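Design job #97: recover the sequence.
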């Protein structure tokens, strides 16, 4: 069926400076924090959009040379580097469908030099990669389940196979132990851990905290012969750290007195941890140094804060010289890669080449009482503007993710267009404890809408939002919640914009990648065959006839997460009613890595809202 297509505007703003500013935020080069080879720290890789497409780059620090490694029409995001710095591995899929194989090429080479890394490992969805000097571990997921391989001395063998979701997590420094995650207990959202001895692939350690409590193996100690594994757990209702000595099976929980969620990484000497704390949409760094008087006891360590600018830290690591490198941004300030030296000096290590992205307005916190506790929201508004304002409720994906005080060119363009932007960390968001994250189990979608409604009520009652000009907008899980909100809460929304959404849950389940089916079974409590009424109740297509607001839907042809057929089912229903809707279809997967395409989609979305609200 042919669907109405949205208008693609030549420009959003009459003012040349405003038009240039919003586009520059997207076109300005950005880059991730570098990842370096463990035993050759001058060999680094990062991803950047400097070419107009997100691709992998190599950085030789000794020569200060930056070189583009990949060059694919739809971009490349997933890469790793060999510990000796000799090779870069990157994942090769087809036009963003996430199904493919790992490629390997020399660190010194550019695009076109790659070859299939492990010929004996079949194509699939990536399920973990670890690279050692003598061996590599590669995880693959398909519709038949998960299979984990080890390749060494020219031979490849399967070390684990299951119909359940599983993945490769960590390799010990001596390359004798392999940590894997698995969900043999039937819950892929709360995995268990197993450690295999690679001499004979036997199990030497098991760790599972029981129903509703997940574990994540972060990394083994970087010291040769040290078989301690850093693990993230949630035994006390939020993400914390423990160290598991696999050799003795001793577990040491780190009692770090910080609110929020905690993750970490080893210092190179194995005597301290770099702690990354996430709390109420912002991040901090700390050093947790072991008590060296008591054989490096981790439960009596010393916690030292490392001052960093207010905002969000995306990733952080410790160099061999003790310096800390981290990616950072805030809502007002574009991202940079910063470096903190051992003497406390903190400066910018890497700023992308070319013009710097224009800044934007800061976000402020709102804490709103909801049906199950306090909901944290972030609010941005045009400078000097007073309400009531046209307001975009930007709903994050995941659902286990969160909106934060990070720089967003997408948020900024809505503000430039005169909208207030409200980001809601609804039940299901991470960063607020396990209970909040898992509160949507058994009733996903409808639970989140209760929190979004509470924040909507607050925004209207406080005078921020014009109730006649509220837009609900999101992508992925946020797109799903957008379509669900339009049907369940039609009186609240004047416009809906849904990117790569779940629209017809039963059909989506049938067509999506197997790891997401496992996720859905865990979230709902079973499959659509087992719980048909619940899936019907939580599916946007059930309520499509109640939709009153104009709807814009955007979707990728090759999306394995929110496949196109189930979206077409929803659009067919809208078309049968002669509803006011438009559909933008593009040749990629679950979003695009091409900057020009992202700009095009953003312009379509903002212009659609402006026109439907009679603001343009």
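Job complete. Output follows.
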């Amino acid at each position: 069926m042919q669907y109405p297509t949205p208008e693609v505007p030549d420009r959003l703003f009459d003012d040349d400076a405003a038009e240039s500013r919003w586009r520059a935020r997207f076109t300005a080069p950005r880059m991730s924090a570098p990842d370096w080879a463990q035993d050759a720290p001058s060999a680094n890789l990062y991803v950047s959009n400097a070419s107009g497409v997100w691709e992998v780059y190599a950085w030789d620090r000794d020569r200060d040379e930056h070189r583009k490694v990949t060059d694919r029409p739809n971009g490349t995001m997933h890469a790793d580097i060999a510990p000796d710095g000799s090779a870069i591995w990157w994942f090769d899929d087809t036009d963003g469908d996430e199904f493919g194989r790992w490629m390997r090429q020399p660190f010194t080479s550019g695009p076109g030099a790659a070859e299939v890394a492990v010929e004996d490992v079949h194509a699939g969805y990536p399920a973990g990669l670890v690279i050692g000097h003598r061996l590599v571990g590669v995880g693959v997921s398909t519709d038949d389940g998960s299979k984990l391989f080890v390749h060494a001395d020219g031979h490849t063998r399967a070390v684990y196979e299951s119909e359940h979701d599983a993945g490769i997590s960590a390799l010990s420094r001596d390359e004798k132990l392999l940590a894997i995650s698995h969900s043999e207990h039937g819950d892929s959202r709360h995995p268990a851990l197993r450690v295999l001895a690679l001499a004979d692939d036997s199990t030497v350690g098991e760790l599972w905290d029981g129903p509703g409590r997940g574990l994540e193996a972060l990394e083994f100690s970087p010291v040769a012969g040290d078989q301690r594994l850093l693990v993230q757990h949630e035994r006390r209702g939020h993400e914390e750290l423990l160290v598991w000595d696999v050799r003795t099976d001793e577990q040491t929980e780190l009692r770090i007195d910080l609110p929020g969620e905690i993750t970490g990484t080893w210092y190179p000497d194995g005597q301290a941890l770099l702690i990354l704390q996430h709390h109420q949409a912002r991040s901090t760094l700390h050093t947790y140094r072991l008590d060296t008087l008591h054989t490096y006891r981790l439960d009596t360590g010393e916690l030292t804060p490392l001052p960093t600018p207010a905002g969000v830290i995306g990733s952080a690591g410790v160099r061999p010289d003790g310096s800390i490198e981290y990616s950072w941004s805030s809502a007002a300030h574009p991202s940079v890669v910063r470096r903190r030296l051992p003497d406390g000096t903190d400066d910018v290590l890497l700023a992308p080449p070319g013009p710097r992205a224009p800044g934007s307005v800061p976000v402020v916190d709102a804490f709103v009482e909801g049906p199950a506790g306090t909901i944290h929201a972030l609010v941005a508004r045009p400078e000097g503007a007073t309400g009531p304002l046209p307001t975009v409720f930007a709903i994050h994906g995941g659902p286990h993710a969160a909106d934060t005080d990070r720089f967003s060119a997408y948020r900024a363009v809505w503000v430039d267009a005169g909208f207030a932007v409200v980001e809601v960390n609804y039940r299901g968001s991470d960063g607020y404890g396990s209970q909040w994250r898992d509160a949507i189990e058994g009733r996903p979608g409808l639970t989140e809408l209760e929190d979004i409604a509470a924040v909507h009520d607050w925004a209207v009652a406080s005078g921020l939002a014009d109730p006649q000009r509220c837009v609900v907008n999101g992508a992925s899980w946020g797109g799903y919640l957008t379509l669900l909100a339009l049907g369940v809460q039609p009186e609240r929304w004047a416009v809906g914009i849904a990117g790569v959404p779940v629209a017809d849950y039963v059909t989506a389940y049938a067509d999506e990648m197997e790891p997401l089916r496992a996720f859905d079974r865990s979230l709902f409590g079973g499959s659509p065959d087992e719980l048909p009424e619940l899936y019907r109740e939580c599916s946007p297509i059930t309520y499509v006839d109640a939709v009153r607001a104009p709807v814009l839907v955007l979707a990728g042809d090759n999306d394995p997460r929110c496949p196109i057929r189930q979206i077409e089912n929803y659009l067919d229903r809208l078309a049968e009613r002669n509803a006011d809707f438009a559909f933008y279809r593009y040749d990629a997967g679950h979003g695009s890595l091409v900057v020009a395409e992202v700009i095009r989609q953003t312009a379509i979305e903002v212009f659609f809202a402006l026109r439907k609200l009679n603001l343009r």
